[in-house]
């Protein structure tokens, strides 16, 4: 696959281990949900190395020192409904105070075109670093539309985090939104005719919520 300078594919042994269990069709809904959260937490650490810090004065038992903290209220999480919801707690483990917006998208099963059906974002989101999260980046249609929706509402600094991606999804996002860093845990082989990622893990929403 073509190399894109803003696409980061993690090659972390712990993530590989967890994804192998996630893919297994015999993994229970409970374990699937827990794994999505755990992988998201690891990815959040990895994708935060450039987070903006502000100096603060801290008094230790011995002296006053200048230390650095993530600026208060500078991060927002936006899951793409539904499957992105499964990743929210994983980011919250690292940033418990991050506000959460929601974008509802579904793919038309015939055309694979995404449709936005809901959007509610925290006030002031245009000044925050926004983590757009969705476990699956397949054709990239949902992510591209969600990025357009966020940009239309003034967001300037957005990071996309997906657990499993197909080359088609990476290409679509990297070409339409070259300013957005894309973090994925693993790059899969491709898509089947129904737009499912291969080998993938099936339908992430159904596996998270037991709807099939
Ligand atoms: C899944 C997934 C992504 C989208 C990826 O959602 O969670 O949002 O498909 O596919 P794309 O890259 O081809 O757009 P789905 O539309 O199945 O909705 P759901 O989360 O409500 O099940
Ligand atoms: N959405 C999913 O949930 N899984 C896929 O493989 C592709 C899109």
Describe the structure.
- This protein has a single domain (about 5-45, about 70-210), classed as Rossmann fold (3-Layer(aba) Sandwich).
- β6 (about 100-105) and β7 form a beta hairpin.
- By secondary structure, the protein is an alpha/beta fold.
- It is about 30% helix and about 30% strand.
- It has helices spanning about 15-25, 30-45, 85-90, 140-150, 165-175, 205-210; strands at about 5-10, 55-60, 65-70, 75-80, 100, 100-105, 115-120, 130-135, 135, 155-165, 180-185, 190, 195-200.
- The radius of gyration is 18 Å and the shape is globular.
- The strands form three sheets. Strands 1, 4, 5, 6, 7, 8, 9, 10 and 11 form a nine-stranded mixed sheet that branches. Strands 2-3 form a two-stranded antiparallel ribbon.
- The longest helix is centred in the first third of the chain and has 19 residues, at about 30-45.
- The protein is built from six helices and 13 strands.
- α2 crosses α3 (about 85-90).
- 1-O-pyrophosphono-5-O-phosphono-alpha-D-ribofuranose binds near residues 80, 106, 136 and 169.
What's the short story on this structure?
The protein contains six helices and 13 strands.
Order of helices and strands: EHHEEEHEEEEEHEHEEEH
Q: Could you name the ranges where pLDDT drops below 50 across 5 or more consecutive residues?
A: none
- Which ligands does the model contain, each kind named once? 1-O-pyrophosphono-5-O-phosphono-alpha-D-ribofuranose, uracil
What's the CATH topology name? Rossmann fold
Mean residue pLDDT: 95
Gross geometry = globular
Structural class: alpha/beta
Q: In the CATH classification, which architecture applies? A: 3-Layer(aba) Sandwich
Percentage of β-strand residues: 25-35%
Distance between the termini: 33 Å
At the first level of CATH, the class is Alpha Beta
How big is the Rg? 18 Å
């Amino acid at each position: 696959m073509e190399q894109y300078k803003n696409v980061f594919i993690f090659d972390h042994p712990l993530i590989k281990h967890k994804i192998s269990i996630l893919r297994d069709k015999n993994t229970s809904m409970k374990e699937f949900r827990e794994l999505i959260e755990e992988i998201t937490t690891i990815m959040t650490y990895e994708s935060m190395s450039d987070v903006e810090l502000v100096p603060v004065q801290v008094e230790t038992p011995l002296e006053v020192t200048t230390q650095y903290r993530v600026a208060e209220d500078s991060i927002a999480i936006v899951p793409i409904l539904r499957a992105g919801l499964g990743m929210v707690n994983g980011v919250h483990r690292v940033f418990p105070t991050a506000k959460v917006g929601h974008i509802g998208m579904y793919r038309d099963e015939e055309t694979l075109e995404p449709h936005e059906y809901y959007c509610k974002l925290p006030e002031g989101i245009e000044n925050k670093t926004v983590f757009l999260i969705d476990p699956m980046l397949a054709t990239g249609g949902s992510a591209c539309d969600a990025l357009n929706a966020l940009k239309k509402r003034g967001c300037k600094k957005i990071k996309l985090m997906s657990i499993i991606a197909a080359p088609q999804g990476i290409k679509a996002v990297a070409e339409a939104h070259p300013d957005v860093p894309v973090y994925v845990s693993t790059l899969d082989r491709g898509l089947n005719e129904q737009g499912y990622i291969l080998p993938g893990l099936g339908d992430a929403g159904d596996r998270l919520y037991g709807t099939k």
